[in-house]
Amino acid sequence: MTTPDSDGPLAEQLLRFTRRVHRIQKRHIEQSGLGVTPAQSRLLRTLAHYGSPPRMADLAERLEVVPRAVTSLVDGLEASGKVRRVPDPTNRRVIRIELTDDGHKALRELRGARRSAAAEILAPLTVEQREVLGGLLDTLVDGTVPEPGKPC
């Protein structure tokens, strides 16, 4: 005897919502006119979190992609002047990646694009619904299971 898949419809909703978020963010990034792909945008955001320029292997690990994928992203961003390859001061065989001034400017503009995408996505929700959604998303991101009888 099989049991019905009670989470099946919810899983489908999550997948559809994720695709919608990606489509809207991609459109807003394209409308920014920066000539940056969503993957390049993610790399720029990741670079901004480092205190000093990381190695490409560090970026690949943080982005959870193969190093070759990072090389392609860096090539494109370097060609547009948003990042540059710099030699490691202690090991000349190591190359590090740093944001340029244009890269920092692009990041500021991309933050605006992401905020406007979020505003579009959240527009149908009331303030109260947004607060509930925020709590639910925190729970899902943290992966914690709430105690019985306690609200998320």
Structure explained in plain terms:
- The protein is built from six helices and two strands; from the N terminus they run H-H-H-H-E-E-H-H.
- By secondary structure, it is mostly helical.
- The longest helix has 24 residues, at 8-31.
Task: Tell me briefly what this model is.
The protein has 152 residues and is mainly α. The protein has six helices and two strands, in the order ααααββαα. A hairpin with a 7-residue loop joins strand 1 (83-87) and strand 2 (95-99).
Gap between N and C termini:
33 Å
What's the β-strand tally?
2
Low-confidence regions: none
Gyration radius, in Å: 20 Å
Q: Strand portion, in percent? A: 5-15%
Structural shape: globular
Outline the biggest β-sheet. Answer: 2 strands, antiparallel
Mean pLDDT across all residues, rounded?
Answer: 91
- Side by side, the strands of the main sheet go 1-2
The number of helical segments is 6
**Computed structural class:** mainly alpha
Order of helices and strands: HHHHEEHH
Helix content: 55-70%
Oligomeric state: single chain
Sequence-ordered SSE layout with sheet pairings:
Layout: H1 8-31, H2 38-48, H3 56-63, H4 67-79, E1 83-87, E2 95-99, H5 101-122, H6 127-142
Helix pairs in contact: 1-5, 2-5, 3-4
